Amino acid sequence: MKSITIIRPDDMHLHVRDNEALKCVVPFSARQMGRAVIMPNLKPPIVNVEAALSYKQKIMDVLDKNSSFTPLMTLYLTDKTTPDMVYQAADAKIVAFKLYPAGATTNSDDGVTDLFKLIPVLQAMSEVNMPLLVHGEVTDSNVDIFEREAIFIERILKPLLDKLPNLRVVFEHITTADAAQFVIQAEDRVGATITPQHLLMNRNHLLVGGINPHHYCLPILKHEKHRLALLEAVSGNNSHRFFLGTDSAPHPRSKKECSCGCAGAFSAHAAIELYAEAFDSIGALDKLEAFASRNGARFYSLPENTDTITLIKKEQIIPESYPFGQDKLIPLRANQTISWSIE
Ligand code: NCD
Ligand code: ZN
Fold first, then answer.
1. Of the four listed, 32, 95, 126, 198, which is most buried by Cβ atoms within 10 Å?
2. Which ligand is nearest the CA of 74, by number?
3. Which residues form ligand 1's pocket by a CB distance below 6 Å?
4. Which atom, in ligand 1's list, is nearest to the CA of 218?
């Protein structure tokens, strides 16, 4: 049977929510990931060090005593963030700030209305070597949803990198050939995460044969040509700039299957197996370890994890749902199989 042993991976983009939901989902990531960059888009968002440290404690409290899973905390950038808040965050080992353009996605109402008014804050981030994580989509209602990422590059990302020559940026959950090309041609201060769903699915998986709300996430799934460009990016030139970030984003079934379903796909139950399937599909399993376990650590100036996991090419059946408080959580591949398993 085909198998591969890799350094334990890290998830550099993860939503674990709060309270009951947090208890349900954290163990899935802790089973396979060494560390995870925890997204701050709670209600209310995590905007200061105190809130981040108490959120971190809540995550630690649901872990097994012998778990070595480490949450890496982030703060939500708002119009009110100050340079002092950046220095405090650096002192408290907060790893990054996350930019949500106001209105871009789930819980982004407190997001930034004009990034270029925050230059002093971004300068402070450059000084302390703290990356800015960007949800890279413009939000103007007259921009087509499939074009929001490509337009973000021109309108925001390029000017941002020009104005702040030392700022380090992670272009989160990229979904287009445009974004992949941009990162390949950028400098090493630019990295990008890619989700399993964007490596495995295109917009047909969302819209053909009926609308599948569990495949609705933001940025939205794109045309097949973009998926192929992402697969090429993780295995080609400058692939060291791309790393694992699932964007696993759990929502209760009732909020997904309704007249206005919310954005987010849950993948933490089988993240590394889904990535293994994607890399295997293009014969690039030899590139999986760098993507999953080395490139992200290097970008965040962290040591690689010291233990390993072994993946085997053996089918696993994914349940139709997991318990989620009073509701249910529908995972990616619910009631279907994934062709890889953890040994
Ligand atoms: C995320 C969520 O639900 O928090 N949803 C999503 O579709 N990806 C937010 C985000 O990362 O955009
Ligand atoms: Zn996200």
1. 198
2. 2
3. 15, 41, 105-107, 135, 217-218, 247, 249, 263-264
4. 7
Question: What are the residues facing 96 on neighbouring strands?
Answer: 74
Judge contact between 257 and 249, C-beta under 8 A: no
- Read off φ and ψ for residue 3, nearest 5 degrees: -150, 160
Distance CA 217, CA 259 (A): 16
Identify residues whose C-beta is under 5 A from ligand 2, the ion: 247
Active site residues: 247
Ligand 1 atom nearest to CA at 135? 12
69, 217, 246, 289 from 311: Cα distances, Å: 19, 27, 18, 11
Question: Which residue's CA is minimally distant from atom 9 of ligand 1?
Answer: 106
CA of 105 to the centre of ligand 1 (A): 6
Contacts of 73 (CB under 8 A, 6+ apart): 38, 40, 46, 52, 53, 55, 56, 93, 94, 95
Q: Which ligand is nearest the CA of 105, by number?
A: 1
Residue of 15, 170, 197 with the most ligand 1 atoms within 8 Å of its CB, for mutation:
15
**Residue 194: how many other CB atoms lie within 10 Å:** 29
Local confidence pLDDT in tens for the 343 residues of the chain: 899 999 999 999 999 999 999 999 999 999 999 999 999 999 999 999 999 999 999 999 999 999 999 999 999 999 999 999 999 999 999 999 999 999 888 788 889 999 999 999 999 999 999 999 999 999 999 999 999 999 999 999 999 999 999 999 999 999 999 999 999 999 999 999 999 999 999 999 999 999 999 999 999 999 999 999 999 999 999 999 999 999 999 999 999 999 999 999 999 999 999 999 999 999 999 999 999 999 999 999 999 999 999 999 999 999 999 999 999 999 999 999 999 999 9
Query: Token pair for residue 174?
Result: 């990229």
For residue 40, the CA-to-ligand 2 centroid distance in Å is: 9
